[in-house]
Amino acid sequence: MRFCHCPSCGERLSSRDLGDEHNVPWCDKCGGPWFEMFYCCVIVLARRGEKFALIKQKSPEQSERDKYVCVSGYIKTSESAEDAARREVYEELGLAAKSVRFISSYVYEKKQMLMLGYCVDVDEGEFKLSDELYAAQWFDKERAASLLKDTSVGNRLIADILKEGE
Ligand SMILES: [Zn+2]
Predict the structure, then answer these.
(1) What residues form DSSP beta bridges with 16?
(2) CATH topology of domain 39-164
(3) Closest to 21 measured CA to CA, from 6, 7, 33
(4) Which DSSP letter does residue 23 get?
């Protein structure tokens, strides 16, 4: 997201060269830059032993409801990405994290997002699903990888996790 107007005072932004950065949007009134912004999310594969948890989200679209995806969510202000990964697994699956491991970051062009990928090992216990979910299930690695759509970030995440184990 590139700003045209200052989000603080509403003034139309001009452009400045700042060090190595060229054409940085600049507010003359506030005297400061407004760098491009994008959303930052976590995408998480919850794992227990050799199994991975995938979820189905409630959605008005039948095609979306039928699709297994990874746990994911926006990182809140003043929250670390690791805390967001733990929180999302707890909110969506009702399971506490034993360990949180960063795998890689992924650019999701379609939504202009940076997604930080994690593998979270979880405690024993039954799923306690969030109201936003329709289903969750444990799958072995081959099945989980085949259920995640080819071009999805989730598919790249599981591929990267499995590569580590080789
Ligand atoms: Zn301003």
Answers:
(1) 24
(2) Nucleoside Triphosphate Pyrophosphohydrolase (3.90.79)
(3) 33
(4) E
| Tokens found for residue 18 | 């700042």
Distance between Cα 76 and ligand 1 center (Å): 24
Distance 10 CA to ligand 1 centre (A): 6
Answer yes or no: are the C-beta atoms of 75 and 40 closer than 8 Å. yes
- pLDDT, tens digit (0-9, with 9 covering 90-100), for 68-77: 999 999 999 9
Q: What is the pLDDT of residues 99-117, one digit of tens each?
A: 999 999 999 988 889 999 9
- Give the domain ranges of the chain: 1-37, 39-164
What angle is formed at CA 112 by the lines to CA 110 and CA 115, rounded to 5 degrees? Answer: 100
For residues 69 and 149, give the distance between their C-alpha atoms in angstroms, rounded to a whole number. Answer: 8
What separation in Å is there between the alpha carbon of 40 and the centre of ligand 1? 24
